[in-house]
Amino acid sequence: MEVGQMQRRLAEYTKSLFMEGILDAQFLQLQQLQDESNPDFVVEVVTLFFDDSEKLLNDIARALDQQCVDFKKIDAHVHQLKGSSSSVGAQRVKNACVAFRNFCEEQNAEGSLRCLQQVKQEYNLVKNKLETLFRLEQQIVAAGGSVPMIESSF
Amino acid sequence: MAPAIEGMAPAVESSEGNNKMSKGYQYPSWKKKLRGLLVDNAELCRIVEKGIMGLCGVETQAVETGEAAVELIASGATFDLIVIDRFLPSMTGAQTARKMREMGVESKIIGLFASYFEGDEEDFVAAGVDDFKEKPLSPNWLVPILRELDN
């Protein structure tokens, strides 16, 4: 596949992530922060997001598994996950966290478990999509092309 | 070229090294040299927020705790804009803001929070915070505030 085709494929793929609400405008901000002095900013921040999220999701699962569930602690974890997902533009993860916090407030274990599954699902989805996106970018760069900036008016 | 993000100046594309086209979004440049202090314990949020404040033309120092922020101010540092996260490990965001006001800080203080529950604002308002924002901190939101500070 030649570079032009790859670039078009990347553009289409990226656009689909916004159309499906998986990413929001905040992700574009991350791209704004990437430049010659910070060439891998997006990948670095997203990797941090993956590491953070996985730890938080594990902590939440463990907390929900206890005899005596500490909803305050879970709420704090979910709050942090909401903060980081909103900072990278992972819109659906962020929205799933909002619902989760309501169940924590109500101290509803069953509802919380359901929400955890929901958040995990959304997280795995965005992780998958972003890894694909980075792979597509790498292919373009490997072929000697450049990765075009996204325009947001979707 | 159409504006890429509502409220921002049109993008100017240019290709510079590194296999990536560099951004060229025209952020306003300020008459004054604007200095910012960011207080956020969450690493990822801190990195992104510091970047965005920088992008908006604010030379920003970032710290992880309220104590560290207060120490900076006690050492004589002054800032045009202070952004404080609500939840900090020991001294809370509100407590940090209150302490700063007690120390005579008159800068614009903005409270930041990851999610909002009713009553959250009162804490911040009582502490002397001027404005709040639910994360993420965005240039669209920040630039008008900076424009005011610059005048």
TrEMBL record, chain A:
Where is this protein found? Cytoplasm, Cytosol; Nucleus
Q: Entry's Gene3D superfamilies? A: HPT domain
Coiled coil stretches, renumbered: none
Superkingdom of origin organism: Eukaryota
Q: Record's Gene Ontology CC terms?
A: cytosol; nucleus
Annotated Gene Ontology MF terms? histidine phosphotransfer kinase activity; protein histidine kinase binding
Protein name stated in the entry: Histidine-containing phosphotransfer protein
TrEMBL record, chain B:
Q: Which GO terms describe its biological process?
A: phosphorelay signal transduction system
> Which InterPro entries does the UniProt entry name for this protein?
CheY-like_superfamily, Sig_transdc_resp-reg_receiver, ST_Response_Regulator
Residues with PTM 4-aspartylphosphate = D85
Which key words tag this protein in UniProt? Phosphoprotein
Q: Where is this region: Disordered?
A: 1-21
User: Has UniProt tagged this entry with the keyword Phosphoprotein?
Assistant: yes
KW Phosphoprotein (keyword) present: yes
In this chain the Response regulatory domain maps to 35-150
Per the UniProt entry, the signal peptide is none
Q: What is this protein called?
A: Response regulatory domain-containing protein
Give the organism the record lists. Answer: Carpinus fangiana
Q: What is the lineage of its organism?
A: Eukaryota, Viridiplantae, Streptophyta, Embryophyta, Tracheophyta
